Amino acid sequence: MTTSTTDPMIGRLIDGRYRVRSRIARGGMATVYVATDLRLERRVAIKVMHAHLADDTQFRDRFIQEARSAARLAHPNVVNVFDQGQDGESAYLVMEYLRGITLRDLLQEYETLTPEQTMDIVEAVLSGLAAAHKAGIVHRDLKPENVLLADDGRIKIGDFGLARAATANTATGAALLGTIAYLAPELVTRGIADTRSDIYAVGIMMYEMLAGEQPYKGEQPMQIAYQHANDSVPTPSSKNPKVPVELDELVLWATARDPEERPRDARVMLERLYETQNLLRTSPPTGPIPAAQRTRVLPVVQAATAETQVLGAKPVASSETGAVSSGATASLAYESAKRRGRGRWLLALVLLLAAVAGGTGWYFGSGPGAQVTIPASLEDTSVAEARATLSRLGIEVREQTGEASHPTIEVGKVVETTPAMGTAVVKGSRVTLLLSTGPEPIQLVDFRGMTQDEAEAAIDGRWTLADPVERQFSGDVPQGTVIDALGADGKTLSDDEVYGELQPITLVVSAGKVPDVRGQTIEEAIANLQKFELTGEVVDEQYSEEVEKGRILAMDIPDGLRPGGEVTLVASAGPAPVTVPELAGLTREQAEATLGELGLTVSYNPIFTPFPAAEVTGSDPQAGAVVAKGSNVAIYLQLFG
């Protein structure tokens, strides 16, 4: 995963709702970021089309097509699309965020995968792809980079940017689309794709997982394309002898050059994969069978001839005729019959054992005693889907269902089975579906007053810490201390409630006090607020005796203020103006006192100061004039009474 702190998108608020946090990846058409949906308080992935493509109608239409194609799919093995829109010149697509790696990352680290790992990943890919094909959508860009492996074990297909409706012949246009290493021959030669083209890409990925490399190599893309169009994909076992022949056959079927010889869609290949999994899990180890275990046909004892002789024995002669004794003849006949009977019995035993062996093989291979594996793909499916899948495998489902809590699976969908998924059972066995009751409720604790580290430790293992932690300014709560804890609905969680296992909790942590900028110049105040990620806005001016004109007189801090918020400021307009009063008829002393109370200074006309009781005849400025506080008023005096 790559991030960039210099990317101008980092920190930007898209469409007034999505705050961009960091960059995940950059492709030829768009860049993908991690963002926070401020409205729903959740983390999302947001794909933003490159600015230089904004004026290209073809790319913009393809970008919108991805949103429409993916939004039509609701499957646990397909990345969910939440929103799509335009913000200025930027077209964007909002998807669920999966923390994890891609299949490409996994292959780069391990090179080859075991047959079991390969089958598990292909099962998830085909399950999601089957939903797309059923909805009439061809992906057209399947590759390891678009297979996402989440940290929680989920496997999902993403990037439907090249998806099109699955008509009989979906043309790509003038240029080949998709990654060259996974293009089906018909895309190379005729530029036409359908569901079988996706199957070809799955077969190439399967080869790569088992063999540790792609089947075709070349210095130029067209060299690889030529091999796709003219050569047959070799068996993975030619590179990795540990690959069983059953997986060789599955790869060759999926990558047949003639589309007619491939599975017609992902559902067909998925069913064959289930059969292959069951076969590999129930078959005996490969290799020569020990001699002691081989079936041997015993030789049949030959019947005696009519003239049986006992070699070396002397005939017993009759005293009268010299004939051979009849008792000896009877004894020889008995021994001969006994040998013949033993031979027939051994032959019958051999035939019986052969019949039993054959019958046993049929019974446990394809008959009533055959074993099948309860597929893991039943998880997060509806009861109807689970029943249909198990019925195809010859497994019955009990009418009565069980219940089990699950943090992410929707209420009423399958969580587990009894016996458990992955267990081999005899055909005709009955299983019980365990349906989700939602997350397991756990008693909450009071997070308020904890430090951030303490609150995160309390959340770990019971709930999920939503990222990012929200910061809020407070004059009462010390910096770094939790002010509030919010649930998935954005409402405050109370310690007298229960909350679902592994459900998200957003911590609101004190960012400390807002800096006091009163008395500072307007420029100084705005600059200091920016250091705390706040905006200062002067909204009014008021007269002030204490604060110099042009400096901040007051500030309004809204409740719940967070970084990125605004503080309204009031600037000083200096002292309030004064209206010159009517002074005529007052004595000099009275006029001076009146003007002094108003903050005005006094001068005289004439300039010398007459006696205190001199009468005022007028003023300059005249009565009623508005002047600044501290201004001088000249008073006219009657010099002689």
Automatic annotation (TrEMBL):
Identify the keywords attached in UniProt to this record, alphabetized: ATP-binding, Kinase, Membrane, Nucleotide-binding, Serine/threonine-protein kinase, Transferase, Transmembrane, Transmembrane helix
Record field: transmembrane:
345-365
Give the main EC class.
transferase
* GO molecular function annotation: kinase activity
- Domain PASTA, by residue range, is 369-437, 508-573, 574-639
Its Enzyme Commission number?
A: 2.7.11.1
One Pfam family matching this protein? PASTA
Domain Protein kinase, by residue range, is: 18-274
What the entry lists under InterPro entries is as follows: Kinase-like_dom_sf, PASTA_dom, Prot_kinase_dom, Ser/Thr_kinase_AS
SMART domains for this protein: PASTA, S_TKc
Q: Which CDD domains match?
A: PASTA_pknB, STKc_PknB_like
Reactions listed under catalytic activity: L-threonyl-[protein] + ATP = O-phospho-L-threonyl-[protein] + ADP + H(+); L-seryl-[protein] + ATP = O-phospho-L-seryl-[protein] + ADP + H(+)
Is Transmembrane helix given among the entry's keywords? yes
- Which PANTHER family does the record cross-reference, listed alphabetically? MITOGEN-ACTIVATED PROTEIN KINASE KINASE KINASE 20-RELATED (PTHR43289), SERINE_THREONINE-PROTEIN KINASE YBDM-RELATED (PTHR43289:SF34)
**What is the name of the protein in this document?**
non-specific serine/threonine protein kinase
